[in-house]
Design goal:
- The protein is built from 11 helices and no strands.
- The N and C termini lie close together (about 10 Å).
- It has helices at about 5-10, 25-35, 40-50, 55-60, 65-70, 75-95, 100-105, 115-125, 135-140, 150-160, 165-180.
- Helix 2 (about 25-35) packs antiparallel against helix 6 (about 75-95).
């Protein structure tokens, strides 16, 4: 990556941070599971209610009650099951703490590589590059990754191109740049600084 690439990201997204609301490590894990095919804004609305309950209460809650709370997030039946199972596993096996282990986290229901990366980088500051639809779109538009690249391919390319000490900051910047500037519909291309390096 050129120095301009990082400079432009700093210009557009000077203070990158995860936009999911959470105050406990397990809350970020649950919120990230909910965010699949759903906006962070919607997830934050849902978790205002869900996170009034403790992890133990969530593990014991009637599944229909969880579904009702998270219904607007989409795929709510599956996600309700995932959330309850995750709460139960955390309580029974990890004293309610999210483990700092990719292997363990990816064994949890509803937790894939992207969710795992989001959690590890935000809770434990582990170097990671989560690839969501925003990161996918931006990297392909800027020619960093070939068209139709899979998330796995894009992750590998970015890890090769970006120094490991920049992974967490830059991946969040790319995501937020895609969310607010390089949008799926009506992207702000006219005055985009990145036109210099495409």
């Amino acid at each position: 990556m050129t120095n301009n690439f990082y400079k432009y990201l700093d210009y557009y997204i000077p203070n990158p941070k995860c936009e999911l609301n959470y105050s406990k490590d397990y809350e970020l894990l649950i919120a990230t599971v909910l965010s699949a095919q759903c906006t962070d804004k919607r997830v934050n609305e849902v978790t205002k209610t869900l996170f009034k309950y403790s992890l133990k209460e969530i593990s014991q809650m009637d599944i229909k009650q969880i579904e009702t709370i998270i219904k607007s997030c989409g795929s709510y039946s599956k996600k309700a099951v995932y959330i309850q199972k995750i709460a139960t596993i955390l309580l029974n096996e990890y004293d309610g703490k999210v483990p700092n282990s990719r292997e363990v986290l990816e064994s949890f229901p509803g937790v894939g590589p992207k969710t795992c990366s989001v959690v590890l980088k935000n809770i434990y500051n582990e170097p990671a590059i989560p690839v969501d639809t925003h990161v996918q779109r931006v990297t392909m538009r800027l020619g960093i990754a070939p068209a139709e690249s899979s998330p796995q391919k894009i992750e590998a390319i970015l890890k090769e191109e970006i120094p490991i000490n920049k992974w967490n900051r830059v991946s969040e910047q790319i995501l937020l740049f895609g969310r607010y500037y390089c949008t799926a519909i009506n992207p702000k291309c006219d005055n985009c600084l990145f036109k210099d390096i495409i």
